[in-house]
Amino acid sequence: LYPYQDSAQVVNGNIYARIPVAQDGRFGNAHLAVGVSAPAAERVIDFKNACAILKFTTYREDLWMMQIHNTSVGCSGEFRINPETGAKASNSNVLRKVSVSYKGNNIGEKYVSMMESNLPKGAKFTFISRDGRMGYIYTSAKNALSNGYIYDLGELDEKITMDAEPAVNLGAEETANCYIITSGGSYRFPAVEGNSKTPVNDIAYGDVIWETRNTSSAPSKFSMASEVAYCDGFMYVRVPDNAPDGNMLISACDQYGNILWSWHLWLIREGVTDQVWPSGATMMDRNLGALSAAPGNSLAFGLLYQWGRKDPFTGIIKANTSTAMSLAGTAINTIASNDETGTIEYTVAHPYTVVYKNEGDWMASPESSLWSAALKTKYDPCPPGYHVPYESVFDGLTADNVPYDETRYGRLMTYESQQLWFPFAGRRQSGNGSVNYGYNSTPMFYLFYDQNTSSSDKCSWVGTTTTLGIGSENFHKAHSSSFSMRCQKIVSSGITHTVRLKYKVTDVSYGVKAPTFTGESYGARMIEWGDGASEGLDLEPNFYHYYNAPGSYSLTVTCVDVNSIRVSIGDLEEIDVTGF
Q1: Where are the domains of the chain?
Q2: Average pLDDT, the chain
Q3: Residue 266 near residue 214, CB atoms below 8 Å
C-alpha cells in the first residue's frame, strides 16, 4: 500500500483504506491516491491506482474552501481492494462529499482524490469566500470517473456564481440548537454546542440528516437544504428560494462520518409571533416546529422532543391517526435505553434515534439539569430569544376557560383578542418510541416544561377531551416519552446588578473563577465580565479567565435579568477570589 496509512489494514487478503473527506488540493500529498501492488510474475510488480482524480484551476484570491457534493453516490470514505485481482469495493461508511481547503494554498491547480464513480446526476461544487459568501457550480451532466485517471475540469473562476453578500449569520446575537429561517438564501451560524461558547471540534464536513414538510408526503431530498458545508468555525446552509416550508436537521461530522453535533432549522416563511398568556408569560404562538398556528390545521402540530434532548423527532400528521410525518433522509429509529444508549454522548451522536424506556427516563443515570428555564442550557431545543418554559406559564389555563374544540381536535382559548390554540398533537410512547395520537383512543396533547422539582418525572402539561392540567399519575408520562414544546420568550427587565470583586493573582498559571449565583429567584441568562484591561470579555458562569502575569485585579460582574425576575446576588460587594 502506497502511500502508507496508519488506518490501512489487511483482512482476509483485502486491503482496507480510506479516501479522506477533507483534503488540501496539493498534488502528490499522501491523500492523493492509494496504490496496491502484488507480484503478477517473477520480477514484475503491477500497480493499480485506487482513486480517480479531479483537477481544476482557480485564481481567485478570495476563496477559503471548496466542497464537492455527489448527491447520488459516494466520493470519499472507506474502501477495500484485493491486491491479487485489483477488484475494489466501497464499504458501508462511504461519504458523498469531499472538501478542499484554500488556506495557505490559494491560487492555481487543485487535485482531489475521489472514489471511482459514474456521477449519474453530476455534482455540486460549493465555494466559500474569506468574508463568508457562498458560491456554486452545478453540473448535471453524467461523468465517469475511473481509477488511475486525472480528469481536468479546467479553469473554474468564470463559472462560479458567487453571492453578492455574506451568508446571513443566524447566531450573531445568540447561538442555539434551533434557528428560524423565513426565506430562501445563504445562511451560517457558529459551530458551537447550543447556546454555549464550546466549539464543536474535529469537523470535516456538514450534512443533511433529514427534511420534512410535516405531512404524509416527503420533500425531495436536498430540496430544503441544497447544500450544507463547514468552514472556519461556521456551518453554512443554502436554502433554495423555492424550498417548501418545513423542518430539517443538519449535522457536523468528522472524517469518519460520525455526528459531532446537530441543529434544527425551522423554515417557516410566515415566521412566528408572540402571545401573552394569563400567567403573564410571553409565549410562542405555536408548537416548536409547527408550520401554522391556525386552529384545526394539522400543520400546527409541530415536532416532538424527549425531555432534556435538543433534537426533534417527527410527530403525527392527523389528530386521530398514529401515522408519522414523512421525511427525506435518515429515518427516525428507536432503541432501548441501557448503559451505552442512555447517555448524552449517545444521543448527541444519534440525534435521529428515540431512546425508550417504558414509563421511565431515557437516561441510564437520570439528570434533572439538562433543561432549565432559569438559565438556558446548551441542550435547550428553542431558537434564539426563547427557552423551555417554566411550569408556572400554564397558570390560569383550565379545562373551563380553554374548552375542547370537537371539530378541530384541540383546545382553544380567546384571551385579550388572541387565540391560544393547543392542538391534539399526540406523542411518541415511552415504551417503544412509536408515534401515537393519544391514550386509550382519546386524542391528546402533551407540552413539556423545564422540570417539576417536587417530582422529577412529572414535567408535562396535558390536555384531553375532558381534562387539562399538569400531568397526573395517569398522564404525567416519563422523560422517555416524546412530547410537543411551546417555547417561552426571554424577556429582559432592563435591571442590571453590578458587583465588584477584588482578588490577587500570584502565579501566572492561576486563573479566576466566577462565583455561582444561587437562590430561588436566580434568572440571569447573561453575565458580562470586564477587568479594566481586557475589553469585550463575555464569559459564561464558572468560566475561568486566565492572566499572563501576577498582580492585583478587580473584576466587574454584570447580571442582566430575564422575565422580570430580580437576580439574587447576596453580599458580594467585595470578596476574595482565589486562584486554582
Answers
A1: 9-162, 168-267, 496-560
A2: 79
A3: no
